[in-house]
């Protein structure tokens, strides 16, 4: 009986071992977070340099972001997610001007040449971040057309909302907003954010809205290099202003990336991790992310909508972007739906009717728990199947040995031969 018990115990331990081999791998696949500054674009491990949103303010001398020597070979996940190939059948944003407030844009950058107007110092983009974002909005992709922006037919008005190292300031953003309004920009994309509300900035936003511009802003600044664990949740500006579309970043799963700055005001999320675009120098590509990249994608979508529906006011454009968003835990940008949807009085207007209080981000914990439960059921089912297969293989052999352990059978056979 003891031999039989040992044999059964061995069978069960074998099944448990097989299941345990699967559990860690599956759990790791579920738990592994997507890095905010990924080292590769996901195309068979191809390496691309990261595009910073700002240069080190502590350095005695600013060293501009060097040209990338690497090029992406395929379309990245963000463009697949936004379904840009199908979107372009309905327009490319031709005839629309998007004012981009950031670190500046190099007018002669690959994929942007001939379609960028830079005011003042905005034509010198030492950081490279503004040019990177302009490529997401209106770049043609140069020699990589699959990496074109959302609205490759639009024009870019480059304006500085930062200093030469990429540090944003309320006064700089205010002046840039006024210049965009005076220039008659159709869409104004504010790729930076400041932590405190400023009266002059609020007035500049209101003036832009009265002029008929669609104002879109990053819900948060891009995270600092030192981490975000000790940074409390707060509203950032001008994204918190009424009528401004507040946009945050998301990973392929639809949630915000690990380490994102917390905030209590988001109208929409768009791809903002492992995004590929060009820079101000050379023909290579970079990887970037953050709420600024998501804002660029939303601004490109707004440009296509304005070109496709030129008679609609800015409020209708915002209604299209928010009312047609993919209905996930946090609404996700869907440019194709925004262009093709038919507006009526029942269409949502999350970003238009927002009062002074910010929109609360919907809690994703319930969805995460549901995913974890589903994963647990799959793992338990897999373990059960493995146990049955193990038993089907091992039980007949154990029965043939009279339920004796394999070692005992080998010893008996050896004794018989002696």
Automatic annotation (TrEMBL):
Biological process (GO), any one: proteolysis
Region annotated Disordered, chain positions: 34-59
Membrane spanning residue stretches: 374-395
Top-level taxon: Bacteria
One GO MF term: serine-type endopeptidase activity
Identification of the protein by name: Serine protease
Keyword Transferase on entry: no
Keyword ATP-binding: no
Keyword terms, alphabetized: Hydrolase, Membrane, Protease, Serine protease, Signal, Transmembrane, Transmembrane helix
Domain Peptidase S8/S53: 93-325
Signal peptide coordinates: 1-31
Entry's family note: Belongs to the peptidase S8 family.
One Pfam family of this chain: Peptidase_S8
PANTHER family associated with the record: CEREVISIN-RELATED, PEPTIDASE S8
Taxonomic source organism: Streptomyces cadmiisoli
């Amino acid at each position: 009986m003891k031999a039989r018990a040992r044999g059964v115990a061995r069978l069960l331990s074998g099944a448990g071992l097989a299941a345990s081999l699967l559990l860690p791998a599956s759990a790791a696949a579920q738990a592994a977070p997507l890095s905010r500054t990924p080292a590769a674009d996901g195309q068979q491990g191809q390496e691309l340099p990261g595009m910073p949103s700002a240069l080190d303010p502590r350095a005695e001398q600013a060293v501009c972001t060097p040209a990338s020597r690497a090029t992406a070979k395929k379309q990245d996940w963000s463009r697949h997610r936004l379904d840009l190939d199908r979107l372009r059948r309905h327009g490319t944003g031709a005839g629309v001007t998007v004012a981009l407030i950031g670190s500046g844009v190099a007018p002669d950058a690959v994929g942007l040449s001939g379609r960028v107007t830079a005011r003042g110092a905005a034509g010198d983009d030492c950081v490279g971040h503004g040019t990177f974002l302009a490529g997401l909005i209106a770049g043609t992709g140069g020699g990589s057309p699959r990496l074109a922006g959302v609205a490759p037919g639009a024009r870019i008005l480059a304006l500085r909302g930062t200093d030469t190292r990429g540090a944003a300031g309320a006064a700089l953003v205010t002046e840039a907003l006024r210049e965009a309004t005076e220039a008659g920009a159709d869409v104004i994309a504010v790729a930076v954010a400041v932590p405190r509300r400023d009266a002059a900035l609020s007035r500049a936003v209101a003036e832009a809205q009265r002029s008929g511009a669609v104002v879109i802003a990053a819900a948060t600044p891009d995270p600092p290099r030192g981490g975000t664990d000790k940074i409390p949740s707060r509203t950032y500006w001008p994204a918190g202003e009424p009528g401004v579309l507040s946009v945050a970043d998301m990973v392929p799963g639809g949630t915000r990336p690990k380490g994102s700055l917390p905030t209590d005001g988001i109208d929409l999320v768009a791809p903002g991790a492992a995004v590929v675009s060009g820079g101000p120098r050379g023909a290579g590509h970079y990887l970037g992310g953050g709420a600024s990249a998501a804002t660029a994608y939303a601004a490109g979508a707004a440009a296509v909508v304005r070109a496709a529906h030129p008679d609609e006011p800015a409020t209708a454009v915002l209604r299209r972007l928010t009312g047609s968003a993919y209905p996930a835990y946090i609404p996700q940008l869907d440019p194709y739906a925004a262009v093709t949807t038919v507006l009526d009085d029942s269409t949502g207007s999350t970003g238009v009717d927002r009062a002074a209080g910010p929109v609360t981000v919907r809690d994703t914990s319930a969805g995460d728990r549901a995913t974890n439960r589903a994963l647990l059921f799959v793992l338990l089912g897999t373990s059960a199947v493995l146990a049955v297969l193990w038993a089907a293989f091992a039980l007949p052999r154990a029965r043939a040995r009279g339920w004796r352990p394999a070692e005992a059978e080998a010893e008996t056979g050896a004794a018989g031969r002696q």
